[in-house]
Write a structure and sequence with these properties.
The protein is an alpha+beta fold and 230 residues long. The protein has 2 domains: 90 residues, Pseudouridine synthase (2-Layer Sandwich), CATH 3.30.2350.10; 139 residues, 2-Layer Sandwich (Pseudouridine synthase), CATH 3.30.2350. It has 4 helices and 12 strands. The strands form 2 sheets. Strands 1, 2, 3, 4, 5, 9, 10, 11 and 12 form a 9-stranded mixed sheet that branches. The protein has a 3-stranded antiparallel sheet with strand order 7-6-8, with helices on one face. It is globular, with a radius of gyration of 17 Å.
């Protein structure tokens, strides 16, 4: 199978018997959910995936939002799924993103430590101190100022739904292109400027250290070029 042509092509960065690293295009939902019709990453990967016991999302140990691009880990067996899920829960998997955020953060690096729950008025969003809040920590450092905005490198300590998007909105620097969280659609952006750029983990079977990186896709590169020229 292939995803919607508008979503691009799913690249297999690494595959072995236990796991695969995929580079997900923006526009592709990870797995089926209420209200979504159309092909998903699970559909595209098919028999490559395995483990976890959930037929809707076999092999899925963490997710990226539909309009977030970049690297994801998927499991290929029950044992690998258990080990990878445990490693993520224990914060042993390093997940780094690149984001272009509005304005200029006050410091060149920092940590946003604020529990996230469902927004009381807009349940499709997450908000600091919302309904059923769970701990959430996001670390960031400035890569460079870009016009009036800022390119940041972000590292997740926890992995809550919409965590990066909600946290940066909460401190007044929403991810550009993210209309749900108040990010302006400048520089020709048609989705949020958020890309899963690096993953580092220990292999669940061999124990070998693995690290993978992904360059910005064309739409985000072009937006960044426009931002530099503004």
């Amino acid at each position: 199978m292939t995803p919607d042509p508008a979503a691009g092509v799913v690249e297999l960065v690494h595959v072995d018997d236990a796991l695969a690293i995929v580079d997900k295009p923006a526009g592709l939902v990870v797995h089926a959910a209420p209200g979504h019709r159309g092909e998903t990453l699970v559909d595209v990967l098919g028999e490559l995936l395995g483990g976890g016991g959930d037929p809707v999302r076999p092999g899925i140990v963490h997710r990226l939002d539909r309009d977030t691009s970049g690297l994801m880990i998927v499991a290929r067996s029950d044992d690998a799924h258990r080990a990878l899920a445990a490693a993520i829960k224990a914060r042993e998997v390093r997940r780094e993103y690149l984001a272009l955020v509005g304005g200029r953060p006050r410091s060149r690096s920092g940590t946003i430590d604020a529990p996230l729950g469902r927004d009381y008025r807009r349940p499709e969003r997450r908000a600091v101190g919302g309904r059923g809040p769970r701990e959430a920590r996001t670390h960031f450092e400035v890569v460079e100022p870009v016009g009036a905005d800022t390119l940041v490198r972000v590292r997740l300590e926890t992995g809550r739904t919409h965590q990066i998007r909600a946290h940066f909105a909460a401190i007044g620097h929403p991810v550009l292109g993210d209309s749900r969280y108040g990010g302006a659609r400048r520089y020709g952006l048609r989705r949020q400027f958020l890309h899963s750029a690096r993953l580092a983990l220990r292999h669940p079977e061999s124990g070998a250290d693995l690290a993978f990186s992904s360059d910005l896709p064309a739409d985000l590169r072009e937006a960044l070029e426009r931002a530099h020229g503004s």
